[in-house]
Design goal:
Layout lengths: L16 H20 L6 H8 L3 H7 L3 H26 L6 H13 L2 H8 L2 H4 L2 H6 L2 H19 L9 H17 L12 H16 L7 H31 L1
Helix pairs in contact: 1-2, 1-4, 4-5, 4-12, 5-11, 9-12, 10-11
Amino acid sequence: MAGREQETSRSPRGLSKRQERAHRILDAAASLILRWGYNKTTIDDIARQAGVAKGTIYLHWKTRDELFSALLRREQLAMGRDFLEHITQDPKGATLRGIYKHTALALMKRPLLKALLLGDRDVVGKLAEREQGSAAYAEKLTGFEVYLEFLRERGLVRTDLKPRAQLQMASAIMVGFFFLPTLTPDEYGLSDEETADLIGETVQRALESGREVSPEEMRSLSDTFKQYLDRVWSMLEEQAREESEA
């Protein structure tokens, strides 16, 4: 697994020594999991990489699974910050096209979350199933379904399909574009920006109604989507806080 992109979320400033140590451990875990995979990465390996005693890790997390869950939560928060920064700079960021384009761009920088999306057992092991079956994952899907219904009521998304069918379609488009490079020669590959644009365009062509949106309506969409993001963000931050303080 050597050679995988290894961008991880470094610890923010202004943290306590305990929190800084937790981030250093998570950095070590991310590096090793991307190199060897979750199943082959031990607490001993992580402790050695982080330069701490094995028992120190258990002061933060009781099990290896809990440590990995905390790592995923941190990656999701970092991806959320990246996504929010770009979507707020895009005048049409709150449309389905904009949402899926910027989600793809943010995800491309997060190899652990890409592995989770694709169910890559070499990297994330059995925890892919547990994370995707979690209450938090279901809550995020439910929240986005509410926003999708908001778009449908305003004639911006097709209404001849049920919202959950549309979520399945959009998810299949995203996963398909991410999975395709594993099946095709490198010379057929596209840049991240080109791939993200195609994901956004495909979602638009498949699900959007084609109705023009006025600037005033776009502001309303942006405000509503921001409320959805705030709820997701608060949920992830609370989970991360509980894990770091446990």
